[in-house]
Specification:
about 500 residues; mainly alpha; globular
Length: about 500
């Protein structure tokens, strides 16, 4: 499918006139597709090379040449061998294959995926528990976007205590779709930018499906949690009175897609195993570039912004990449230093478009690592999930005789020492500066929760621990610093990253 961009250039801060909505490059939907645009599961598992990229974007062309890395595992599919290492030629899709599942999981996959595309109400009616029971309430062809308790929760979506785990259960695992759609509609962005409802729903379904649900941490629930946190920051007075509708659209899309296609292992793992993505992005922000390019691929595949002028659409993709790349933890010191300088000199003017974009970068960085700032009941769950993901990588490294990455050995590390190190070296410095920028009740609440959570983990650390978990004092400090980088996919400490003004890799013309 080739997308034609022949529309006149229009400013993004104005609604697009109806006479330019020619629906070029629209996707034709088969009768088997949902009226909401939810794709047939069989179509989801067979998408390959369906994206048309600008010929000047060599990185995107390389992705197309390699094939669609988002394709789920299929019986009989043999990934191309890209490395001599016994593990490295294995694609992301096989990384998440459960041992002992065999081919039986392949047949059960489509059925599970269909259930995920149903609303909670329709899923209950289709479940075995209610099979054969007369339906007291007839099912409508189009269910409401959210019902019952989920709707009540969305009425308080700006509450910092929002329980994303409960919301995910109430929406039958569709928290990212439901939450993002609700926020876009609440801001009036669907109408303002004249987004096609079918394309938008289809895009959100594909985004959620491209997160690996087998990841304990980097999954669609994490993306939904970051999106909810981003909304809380967008509601802060300093931002609410300054950001444009375009800024808000960009911020919500970046939050929803910031970890798209995350494989559950970090960048050094991909580099040392010679994974083709590490080669593709030259060992620089490998995961973040992958997330960004995957998001761009879905935007183009669905044609969500195909009604906009080509120049505006490309600018949106570049700025989306700039936000997603800002979540690279190896750039932490660079962004934090720049933030401090602006605050010290009091020269941060949100009437300036570049300054607003920088604040969006900082807001997304805060949202991405805000777990220590949540109430203990939520923060503890996230801490356990991210640590389990570390340990799973360590298990893989042990199995394939690789050097175990820092903090990934479940025999030598605990949830508590990893979290205390992360709060000390990464979260506290970042949120202290954010509090200087936006000194509100929310900022003080986040710092308060983090202090209590750190003390709670410290108290748990006082309990007797196995001898294998004891370490030399000189090494303990290094390991806690490593927690900062490992959490977001890099083990390099955040020292002297590239400037935030750098154009995202792959966006330059060749």
């Amino acid at each position: 499918m080739e997308v034609c961009y022949q529309l006149p250039v229009l400013p993004l801060d104005r609604p697009v006139p109806k006479h330019v909505l020619s629906r070029r490059g629209a996707i034709s939907f088969s009768s088997s597709s949902s009226l909401f645009g939810a794709p047939d599961p069989r179509q989801l598992s067979q998408r390959r090379g369906a994206i048309s990229y600008d010929s000047s974007d060599q990185t995107a062309l390389y992705i197309r040449m390699l094939g669609d890395v988002r394709v789920r595992s299929q019986v009989g599919f043999e990934p191309e061998r890209r490395s001599s290492h016994p593990y490295l030629f294995i694609d992301f899709r096989t990384l998440h294959t459960r041992l002992g599942c065999g081919s039986a999981s392949a047949s059960a996959g489509p059925e599970r995926r269909v259930h995920r595309l149903l609303s909670f109400q329709r899923y209950l009616h289709s479940s075995r528990l209610l099979r054969g029971v007369p339906q007291q309430i007839p099912l409508h062809i189009l269910d409401e976007a959210y019902t019952g308790q989920a709707r009540c929760m969305l009425e308080k979506v700006g509450n910092w205590n929002f329980d994303i785990f409960l919301f995910d259960k109430l929406t039958n695992g569709n928290s990212l779709i439901t939450l993002t759609f609700h926020l876009l509609n609440q801001y009036g962005l669907v109408e303002l930018f004249q987004l096609d409802m079918v394309k938008l729903w289809r895009f959100l379904v594909m985004v959620q499906e491209d997160y690996h649900s087998d990841n304990p941490y980097h999954n669609a629930v994490h993306a939904a949690d970051v999106t909810q946190a981003m909304y809380c920051y967008l509601q802060e007075p300093m931002l609410a009175k300054s950001l444009t509708s375009y800024d808000i659209l960009l911020g919500l899309l970046a939050a929803a897609t910031h970890d798209l296609g995350h494989p559950g292992v970090n960048q050094p793992f991909l580099i040392k195993t010679g994974h083709y993505l590490a080669t593709l992005y030259r060992n620089t922000s490998v995961l973040e570039n992958h997330h960004w390019k995957s998001a761009v691929g879905l935007l183009r595949e669905t044609g969500l912004f195909s009604h906009l002028p080509a120049e505006d659409s490309l600018n949106l993709e570049r700025e989306l990449g700039s936000l997603i790349l800002a979540t690279d933890i190896s750039r932490q010191n660079g962004y934090l230093s720049r933030f401090r300088i602006h605050l010290d000199q009091e020269n941060l003017f949100l009437s300036n478009a570049s300054h607003r974009h920088f604040i969006l970068q900082m807001a997304l960085k805060c949202a991405d690592i805000c777990n220590p700032c949540r109430p203990w009941e939520l923060s503890k769950q996230w801490s356990e999930r991210v640590t389990e993901e570390f340990f799973q990588q360590g298990d893989i490294e042990k199995k394939h005789k690789l050097e175990v990455s820092p903090l990934c050995d479940r025999q030598k590390n605990t949830v508590g020492n990893i979290q205390i190190g992360f709060m000390t070296y990464v979260a506290e410095p970042l949120f202290a500066e954010w509090s200087r920028f936006s000194d509100t009740r929310l900022s003080q609440t986040m710092l308060g929760h983090m202090g209590l959570n750190k003390a709670s983990w410290g108290g748990l650390q006082q309990e007797p621990t196995p001898v294998s978990e004891e370490r030399e004092p000189s090494r303990a400090g290094t390991d806690t610093e490593d927690a900062a980088a490992r959490r977001n996919g890099n083990t390099a400490t955040a020292a002297g990253g590239p400037s935030s003004k750098e154009i995202p890799q792959g966006s330059r013309e060749s």
